Amino acid sequence: MPSRKFADGEVVMGRWPGSVLYYEVQVTSYDDVAHLYTVKYKDGTELALKESDIRSQSSFKHRKSQSSSSSPSRRSSSRSRSRSRSPGRPAKGRRRSASQSREHKDDKKKTIQETSLALAVLVLFKPSENNTKRYNGEPESTEKNDTSCIILEQKLKPDLEIKRVLEQYSLRSRKDDKKTEEIFSEKKTFVPLKPIEKVPSKTKELEFGGRIGTFMLVFLLPATVFYLLLMCKQDDPSLLNFPALPALESLWDWRVFGVFLLWFFLQAVFYLLPVGKVVEGLPLSNGRKLQYRINGFYAFILTAAAIGVLLYFQFELRYLYDHFMQFAVSAAAFSLALSIYLYVRSLKAPEEELALGGNSGYFIYDFFTGHELNPRIGSFDLKYFCELRPGLLGWVVINLAMLLAEMKIHNLSMPSLSMILVNSFQLLYVVDALWNEEAILTTMDITHDGFGFMLAFGDLVWVPFVYSLQAFYLVGHPITITWPVAAAITVLNCVGYYIFRSANSQKNNFRRNPTDPKLANLKFIPTATGKGLLVTGWWGFVRHPNYLGDIVMALAWSLPCGFNHILPYFYVIYFICLLVHREARDEHHCKQKYGLAWERYCQRVPYRIFPYIY
Asked: Quick count: other Cβ atoms within 10 Å of Cβ 168?
């Protein structure tokens, strides 16, 4: 194993990937497995570089001083010679013949021409001040509406002919050239090296309160779900009226658990059907792209058909309402077992497949946040499947069961207006998510977070049993609202949905294809990564307009439940806290990723979620 050349904290000169430019960087860490140095540029950008792309400052400055001479190669060679005269060189004071003089002049002229050509090539490729800023994370200008700069940055590679000229007319000293010749002379054959994949380093910054916080959340999240469901069952669901704890044996039913397993594996069968297009996700840290089959909307249609068949044969969906707590316990037990399986299998996963945020080395933290980024069984992606299928579709089925339970319990010929609004708004949200399924591939859940207890419990328990809280509340606490109030709530939900959908569409279309002519009017700030930060449209209004639309819709879902109790508004309160926390995580990651370009974006768009407020 080669020895390490540069120490942590050492200030060196690092080559920017894909260019001939060197910048001052600081070594932060070294990976013994991949033999890569993690270096930090002045703008905060962190990259992994090979040792061959790093040079010491002393050698860099030495070469820089040499370049001021018109013939650095001659000067370096003269310094390397001894004071004794070579046999072929005439002694001092001896006159040269005419032919020797002409040859000397020709050699000198050729050397000057070669050096001038090399300097011309270097000047040609020397970046201007603005270009240097762009490589350091600063845009050449504050705003652009031409996507060509991103395309050029992505496709720009050293030209082979220019590289050949630079190698032929190099300004390096003959001593360096001699070392290069010795290296190549040792191996007569050239063997191409495999590209070194970037290996995720250990997670240094712990989120969610670190080990103590994640340990508490493992118990707090299930307790919150059970508390909310018990409160909704009470006649007076006030916060001060703490519900009586049920007997433990009443919380478990093997038949209910079997129904839950049947539902889970039925959705898995729908997921594996060879229908729908196959798309590639965003590049992973090692450059690889995973493939995903987009057939969530087909699964929704098949699920609706299956529910219709059950209703046709007089199957009582009220069974869900009567055993709601037992279904929640079954889902929690399954998510815990799934989380244990995910963590055990992640211990054997390759290093490059681990999540950047869940590789701390602490069991409870990695168990909660997810140790492996994209766990798969063959082509079956466990995280992607759970993100949309069992929980999201289960949410819709639970709402329908609550609607039917309300009609039967209160002897109604049709559901109440409040129940219709809640079911309609949330059905629209789920159908939109499934119709735009491909958009989830760019979210933090897929690209950054590992699959552990946090996402497993969230997808299988929190989403179906907490998001349906309004419908569950209305079954035991019916609310009557007028048509004008219903119309106003509908308008509010439509406004939130429009903000949510249009903002997400702008972002996803721009990420997928920034050269789309439909996006030519969008302005953006270019970054050193080759991506752009939108500063027009919804993304020039606030930094997270999709979160703003989400919160507006969440409020519209709670308003049909009236103002008798705060319990139906738990969802919107929780959602605001969740999105504010997620926004803080986004800010931290984007600042590390985009450097000074993100700071300029924050100056251009000062408000995070709520305009003129936050």
From this structure: 11
